[in-house]
Design brief:
With about 190 residues, the protein is of the alpha/beta class. It has a six-stranded parallel β-sheet, with helices on both faces. Helix 3 crosses helix 5. The chain is globular, with a radius of gyration of 15 Å.
């Protein structure tokens, strides 16, 4: 069975933006698609998210693909390492792994600390995920550009630069990411 996970970000908006598009496209390619609903905003925590994804651990295998948006990226990187899981393809959307501060966003800053990853987590991903891609833009209103660039370098993933699409969520009205479908079709 081929499984695909779509992991949303802090606001959960992936499920209402590009998530349904990817789900439909992946299902056309015979993937069983899992889009877990994690607690969002002030309710988001690593432990709460991990307890939900624990229900799907047995679905991870060397054919699994995972797409993560925003804070879903450090969550996934840490989770896959801590649970000794593997997957074939990991695509980050507006991904980061460094803790940084967003002015006047204590809720988000606290989540960044809670979802923090270690260098061991990063190394695990580099050694246990065959294909890694990172989609990012030049006008992301949440993640600074240098942190987006540092992420794909640190993870040794293939960068996919998409100009003018911001953080790729509700605010940017992104409902399709055909670049991800193209990646899936080419691996």
């Amino acid at each position: 069975m081929k499984n695909a996970f779509i992991i949303h970000g802090f606001n959960g908006d992936t499920t209402g933006t590009f998530g349904p598009y990817l789900k439909e496209e992946f299902e056309k390619r015979n993937y069983s698609v899992i889009m877990p609903n994690f607690p969002i905003r002030t309710e988001a925590s690593y432990l709460a998210w991990a307890s939900i994804l624990d229900n799907y651990k047995d679905l991870f295998n060397e054919e699994t693909i995972v797409v993560c948006h925003s804070i879903g990226n450090p969550f996934f990187i840490r989770y896959i390492c801590e649970n000794n899981l593997k997957c074939k393809l990991y695509v980050s959307v507006a991904g980061f792994c460094k803790v940084f501060t967003v002015p006047e966003r204590e809720d988000l800053n606290n989540a960044f600390i809670d979802f923090k990853v270690s260098s061991d987590n990063i190394n695990y991903c580099k050694n246990n995920i065959e294909h890694r891609y990172s989609l990012y833009s030049d006008n992301d209103h949440v993640i600074p550009f240098d942190i987006l660039e540092d992420f794909f370098k640190e993870l040794n993933s293939t960068p996919v630069f998409i100009p003018g699409v911001g953080h790729m969520g509700n605010r940017n009205h992104i409902h399709e990411l055909p670049q991800i479908v193209e990646i899936v079709d080419n691996i």
